[in-house]
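Cross-posting from the chemistry board since nobody answered there.

I work mostly on the small-molecule side, so proteins are not my area. We synthesized glyceraldehyde-3-phosphate and want a rough idea of how it might sit in this target. Sequence and SMILES are below. Is it possible to get a predicted 3D structure of the two together?
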Amino acid sequence: MTEHGNPGTEFDPALLGNVNLNSVNQLAKSISSKLDLFPEWVPSPDGKSSMKDKHRPAWILKAVTLIDLTTLAGDDSLSNVSRLCLKAARPIAKDVLEELGFDYEDNSPIHTAAVCVYPNRVQEAVDVLKKIKMLGKINVASVATGFPAGQTPLNARLAEIRYAVENGATEIDIVINRPLALAGKWKALYDEIGTMKEACGTAHLKTILATGELDTLQNVYNASMVAMMAGADFIKTSTGKESVNATIPVGIVMARAIKDYQHKTGYKVGLKPAGGVRTASDAIQWLILVKDLLGHHWLNPALFRFGASGLLGDMETQLYQYVTGRTPSGYEFTMG
Ligand SMILES: O=C[C@H](O)COP(=O)(O)O
């Protein structure tokens, strides 16, 4: 990510700002309404696909390449991490992909951007990706810093980052200290994230704001700005464990903060919605948001990711429907 990396800046309280709720809500409505431009497949009586819009499959494929395919469960093990890596390398079934005009076997550009696992599973993910010659094409990301709550001592959180990096993670998804944000202690939050940036070394820093626990969109904007000033290469909405995760209004506020930060500093920071992104339509809505607010060039893995554990299933189903004209049976896909 050297092209887009963010070294951060001095803490500048003048960069904290105000959020206009009306304008956020209006924009959210307009983004949702644009989904109609990408109609879903509907079964037709002759069994043929009636997905008229050819752009939808293209957007779905694009979204596949932007996924951090994630497993963050207490029972994660070598076996499901291995399956995750294999799925990341070949996310779409061979016949579907070939029907859409892509090579399956060699150098297929259709793979996810990264896999995302707990620190204890990083080494396994690295080994599997190396074995299938996809390490580097697919990055290994790890959550760290007491994910998801972040309620462990700073030294333990920093040690966790170093452990994940030593084991081969090249992207670290940290969680912010929500009490500092809720108390408006922005400089203290900046300092803490700054130490995490240092601990990452050359690994890229993704900063999870856990927006569902930040109470207000104003706090979301300020936390975004503080994370970027402290050197976040990405700002990420959620852990997937809060009761409210990635929402469009939050995405609008974060995208605006990214734009404002770029305007002030010249640095481009990535956006990562995560948590509850489950359907192709959810994903397309985020692509529309990014294209409208940040520009088409933001839609690449260096600047945009989805954090998702359960999004691929619907995407694969919709592409299958598009090329075959029928709904797949449950057994036709190995993993959702
Ligand atoms: O960082 C990624 C999230 O934990 C994934 O959340 P999800 O399981 O709701 O897709």
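Reply from a structural biologist on the board:
Welcome over. Reading the output above for you: Strands lie at 67-70, 114-117, 139-143, 171-175, 204-208, 234-236, 270-272, 306-308. The pocket of glyceraldehyde-3-phosphate is lined by residues 70, 72, 116, 239-240, 274-277, 307-310 (CB under 6 Å). Happy to explain the token format if needed.
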